[in-house]
Each structure stands twice: as structure tokens, then as C-alpha cells.
Amino acid sequence: MLSRIAESLFWIGRYVERADGTARILDVHLERMNNLPATQQEQISRDLLALMGVPAGPGPVTRDNLLKTLAYDARSPGSIAGSLSAARENARRARETVSSSLWEGLNTTFYGIGKHHRDLVGAYGFCHWVLERSAMVTGLADSTVSHDESWLFLKLGRSLERADMTARMLSTRDLVSGGISWVHMLRCAGAYESFIRNRGGSSGDQNAAEFLLLDRLFPRSIVYALHDAEKCLMKLEPASQRVGFIDDARRIVGQARTFLEFHRTDNLLEELPEHMGRVQKAVFQASEAISYKYFNQTKQLEWIGEVS
């Protein structure tokens, strides 16, 4: 496979998942922010922008500024509109590889971005629309793209981004005054029903944090996403299964996953910020290692760089 095609597919997976994750983070925080005074809204907006790796700038940061920067600014690869636009552009570059259904799904989504009102009520609708479109695009990719190397690169990008976005989502819990309840956090990840089925009457912050971080069967848990990324890397490089041939990206992802799975602690909540920082660092380093190994780093593709 040509490196430019592999790179485009990798970033399609990442950008669609980034749009989905950003929409989930905005959706769970907007309602709580709406009930706070302007000074607290500004501080939370700044904290959210910093967490998403977007500079806030010197001036005041209102809720409208937050929405413009993280939702509607098509020039920023860290915004929802920018991520979906970049996913479509990457699909255009790899048009000979992506299926017609996947291309049409991304193209229709791109042209639907500007049809939403940019007020608070419109922002809620926009976030839910993005979740639906992202799920549809992901389903089209899984059902209409051959599960060969093309699909592995797409899924690899999606899995790494999902681990990163879940880590960022968990890191936002204490940004809002009074904290976001773990029920809201579970609903944000689409995990509430699965958590109730898994834990039954055993609820509480510790159990919810463990579920989103460590559950091996829930697709949006960090451990599940890292394990998916590791499996993709193994299939892309079968020789790495022999002793002494493990590649850097698989080593980084595997170390991050095994640390989380086998680390024992009496208070996960206190250690959560440290774990989230470690996951985000691992995703960034793994992405760099994948780029170095599989993709041509040319001037024409510099705009695809990751928002860290």
C-alpha cells in the first residue's frame, strides 16, 4: 500500500473519532456551564481549551468563544468542523481506496455542518447530530471497506484517538464547579447501560472510573481501545511477534495498556490525572512512531499533524 494512502486512512479514523469525542465533551459540559456565573464559565472554557490542546488567546473566553473554537471553526483540526473537514479531505486523497458509501457519508456530513444554528440550543443539536453522523461513518467503514491493511490503518487511527479522547473526557470531570457526576460521565461515553448491567447495584465513583478506564469488553474504555490498537499493529507487522522484532509503536501502546491493566491501587480517583496524562503521552508517542515507520513525512502533508 502507498504510504500516502495508509496515512490518509489512519487520519480518517482519527479525525472522525476526534469529532465524536469533542462532541461528547461539549455536550456533557454545556448544560452545567449554563447555570454558572460568567467568571466561572470563562475559567472553565479556558480549562477545556487547554485540555483539548487549543490556545485560548489573550482576550476573554466566553461560552460562545468556546463553541466557535471547539465546534464550528473549520480551520482548526481540534474542532468538530475542522476534524470532519480534515476527514473528508483525507478521504478525497484516498478516493481510490475508500468505498463509495464511506466517501458519500463523509461528504454529506461535511456539507451538513453549516446547517445548524450557532446558539446554545443549536449547539446541543449539533453535538447529537455529530454523534449520529460519526456512528454512521464508522459503521460504513466497518461494513463496506475490506478488512485488509486499509481497514487496519483506519481502525488503528480510530482506536488511538478513542483512547486519547476518553482520557481527555475523564480529565474534564473536575473542571466544572462542583464536578460532573459519574452518571453524567458514563452517559457522555454512552456507557451508562453497560455499566449498570455489568455492576448491577454496585455503583459509585470508583466503580465508574474503573469501568471507563479498565473494562476489557466496553468499546470506549481506554484499555479496550489500546488493546484494539495493539492488535492492529500486530496484524500490520506479523514479524514483530517473533522475539526481538517488536516495533516502537506496539511497545508504547502495549506498555500503556499493561500498566493500566495490572496496576493495583486503593484509590484510583486520586491517581486518575496521572493515568490520563500517561495515556495521552503514549498515544502521541505511538502516533509519532507509526508516522516514522509507515508514512512519508513530506512538506505537503504537514497540515495533518496531531493536535497535542
Explain what this protein looks like in three dimensions.
With 308 residues, this protein is an all-alpha fold. It has two domains: 1-145, no CATH class; 147-297, no CATH class. The chain has helices at 3-34, 38-51, 63-72, 80-93, 100-112, 120-144, 149-171, 182-188, 192-199, 205-214, 222-236, 248-262, 268-294.
Briefly say what this structure is.
The protein is mostly helical.
Number of strands: 0
Radius of gyration, Cα only, in angstroms?
19 Å
Low-confidence stretches: 298-305
Biggest sheet, in brief? none
User: Averaged pLDDT, please?
Assistant: 86
How many domains, as an integer? 2
Give me the strand/helix succession.
HHHHHHHHHHHHH
Strand portion = under 5%
Structural class: mainly alpha
Helix count, DSSP H or I runs of 4 or more residues: 13
* First-to-last CA distance: 28 Å
Shape: globular
Task: Give the fraction of residues assigned to helices.
Answer: 55-70%
Q: Which helices and strands occur, and which strands form pairs?
A:
Blueprint: H1 3-34, H2 38-51, H3 63-72, H4 80-93, H5 100-112, H6 120-144, H7 149-171, H8 182-188, H9 192-199, H10 205-214, H11 222-236, H12 248-262, H13 268-294
Structure keywords:
0% strand; globular; mainly alpha; 2 domains; 13 helices; 308 residues
